[in-house]
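Researcher: Sit down with what I've pasted below and flag anything odd:
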Amino acid sequence: MSFVKVAKTGDISPGTMKHVEIAGKELCIANVGGKFYAIGDRCGHENASLARGKLEGTHVVCPMHASKFDVTTGKKVAGPVLELAGIAKKFSGCPEPVRKEMGAMFEGIAAAQSSIKTYDVPSYDVKTEGMDILVNV
């Protein structure tokens, strides 16, 4: 393993993330108050890009099912969220048979999703040299 340049410090504003691909790996580079962190960019639940999610302090929230991972360690801290509260309202204007079918479909999806394990994501050492962000891949 060796440190490889992945971005410039100005490319990633505080409170944001960036997807990069380097050395055959997909990384999510996060800027938390001017300090940079790197974790694997694929959610340990269903493979969504974490860099497309939200950064809340040191936690990245997956855009797909809201699993949360600590960008300092890669550890899962919450999720996924599989609740379907409010989904029925989206179909309130549909005929009753359609509402029933959609309700059954979403219940089935939630049941199937609940059995999928969510794994931690890898974390990588990061350093800056001047304006360059380097990650140990």
